[in-house]
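assembly run, all chains below
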Amino acid sequence: KAGVTQTPRYLIKTRGQQVTLSCSPISGHRSVSWYQQTPGQGLQFLFEYFSETQRNKGNFPGRFSGRQFSNSRSEMNVSTLELGDSALYLCASSLGVATSTDTQYFGPGTRLTVL
Amino acid sequence: AQSVTQLDSQVPVFEEAPVELRCNYSSSVSVYLFWYVQYPNQGLQLLLKYLSGSTLVESINGFEAEFNKSQTSFHLRKPSVHISDTAEYFCAVSVRGSTLGRLYFGRGTQLTVWP
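ok done. output:
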């Protein structure tokens, strides 16, 4: 079974631009979560989608948004990029049924650099 | 609110030596506990998790962790490490009984195994 895939793996953008990251979960998984990983803040939860609905959201500004499609693939969008948005963005998928006991399977991440 | 503290940011050890990576958590509700490992340029992989039952849980590659409720700890141990164990290790919790799959992570411990 294929793992979680994220595209692109690397991105370089400039301040003020917007960016869209994509995540394809493991087949059969209906929950997709996004995390931001930085050296300063560690791993921080962005949001979780299940069956095309956002069911949980972390403490990030409205510039960070996401969506999930009917095939469970998910995208996250960051508008008006700031230098502090430079990070590794990780996507995780799970079955989404047992939720807090589910094993979350992580993709390799998208490394975003904002210049 | 949930918080996870990993007491050591870096742990250097020699090959075949024992190692302990410490993790303490704080939560007003019951939690499930996880250890994830991140190898360079990769996403996170689940190492082991404690949901219920025996407080000692083991992974397939020789790591074990013990849940101590009174000390709110979930330390990770391995009796003899290999160079291939060099990676960053993250302790995480999720809220027991929650319908949401959010993980709360510690800041990570970089384990470096020297020959």
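The first strand of chain A starts at residue 5 and ends at 7.

Chain A touches chain B at residues 4, 31, 33, 35, 42-43, 45, 48, 55-56, 58, 90, 92, 94, 96, 99-109 (CB under 8 Å).

not gonna interpret more than that til we talk
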